[in-house]
Design goal:
70% helix, elongated, two-stranded antiparallel sheet
């Protein structure tokens, strides 16, 4: 969110500016954590279950849209990892 109240070239209006700001900041921080979690899973440091269990243990319900975003990002990064692995195998076979 920019200082003039615009977000991606759209003016956001709300009667509760603090709530609106918190939601936008929360979404941005979700994106940062999402990248770190998915990178760690792709590097075999953690499993998806280990990360998601932390939320359930603390009584936090992840919205379905965020969970879908998490799984889509994870699948995309796994595909990229697997493609790189297969390319490396082909290089060594030649």
């Amino acid at each position: 969110m920019f200082e003039d109240g615009q977000f991606k070239n759209k003016i956001l209006q709300s009667k509760h500016q603090n709530i609106l700001r918190s939601v936008i900041i929360g979404k941005k921080s979700w994106g940062l954590f999402l990248n770190e979690w998915t990178n760690s899973i792709c590097e075999w440091c953690f499993t998806e279950e280990e990360i998601l269990s932390q939320f359930t243990e603390n009584g936090i319900k992840i919205p379905e849209s965020f969970l879908l975003d998490f799984r889509n990002t994870l699948e995309r990064k796994k595909l990229i990892r697997n493609k790189k692995y297969l390319e490396n195998i082909r290089i060594f076979e030649v």
